[in-house]
Design a protein that fits this description.
By secondary structure, this protein is of the alpha/beta class. The chain folds into 2 domains: about 180 residues, Vaccinia Virus protein VP39 (Rossmann fold), CATH 3.40.50; about 45 residues. It has 8 helices and 11 strands. Strands 3-2-1-4-5-11-10 form a 7-stranded mixed beta sheet, sandwiched between helices. The longest helix has 15 residues. The two termini are about 35 Å apart.
């Protein structure tokens, strides 16, 4: 079976070069705000789904929690594993497949680490595995971009020079997906990668949560946890409760 775009791109060192400006302070502020709002018990077990190189996991663990990070990328997990300790573990794992059952108090899926798959059924099945991993009354925090605002301000072409590499980025909307083509040369070689993320809206998530056994408890529009506003919010952040099947 040919590899999907996310296998190739997230395993590439160029992914981290292009996005090297991601703000750790902003990520830590988000985690601080979530912890202040959710007030997890000190004994809580937390799951970071699609954890990347582990920046959210590291910070949650630093706050004293038992954290498990999972990601599809072998390169990301290899990097994260050097920071493991007794209360911080990382595993290569595909979010679509069952991991633990009734084990975690809170599952986090942050920074638009969702929406990558071909069908809505794939996404619902992923949400069902998230649900199964949670204890009774467990919570899911899912952080997505605000599709409405992204589409309204979509720039078809963009060029970024990062670390001496000129990334040519083309964006389009096709078949309900926001598709980003990333083309560049490095060391006399040509590279081409893609990102394809579903243009899910609040209505789409309401439907998928309903079908996967979650109830939306709160919906926020930014990392300061202000209310979601379709026109103005940069993010679409859900806090969902696991409900009995």
């Amino acid at each position: 079976m040919p590899k999907k775009w996310f296998h190739n791109w997230f395993n590439s060192p160029y992914y981290h070069i292009l996005y090297n400006n991601r703000n750790d302070e902003e990520a830590e502020l988000f985690i601080d705000n979530l912890c202040s709002f959710l007030k997890p018990a000190s004994s809580s077990r937390l799951l970071d789904i699609a954890c990347g190189r582990g920046r959210h996991s590291f910070y949650l663990n630093k706050k004293g929690y038992d954290v498990t990070g999972i990601d599809l990328s072998l390169a990301n997990i290899k990097y994260a594993k050097q920071f493991e300790n007794g209360n911080l573990q990382f595993y290569v794992h595909d979010m679509r497949y069952l991991f633990y059952i009734n084990y975690f108090d809170i599952a986090f899926n942050l920074f638009t680490s969702f929406g990558y798959f071909e069908t809505e059924k794939d996404h619902i099945n992923s949400l069902k595995t998230f649900r199964k991993s949670l204890k009774k009354d467990g919570l899911l925090v899912l952080d997505y971009f605000n599709t409405y605002k992204i589409l309204k301000h979509l720039s078809p072409q963009e060029t970024k020079n990062v670390g001496g590499i000129v990334f040519n980025i083309n964006k389009q909307v096709l078949d309900g997906k926001i598709i980003k083509s990333i083309i560049f040369d490095h060391k006399s070689r040509n590279f081409a990668f893609k990102e394809e993320v579903n243009a899910f809206t609040l209505t789409d998530f309401e439907r998928m949560f309903n079908k996967s056994g979650f109830k939306i408890a709160h919906c926020f529009g930014n990392y300061d946890l202000q209310p979601f506003d379709e026109l103005r919010s940069d993010r679409l952040i859900f806090i969902c409760k696991k409900i009995d099947a």
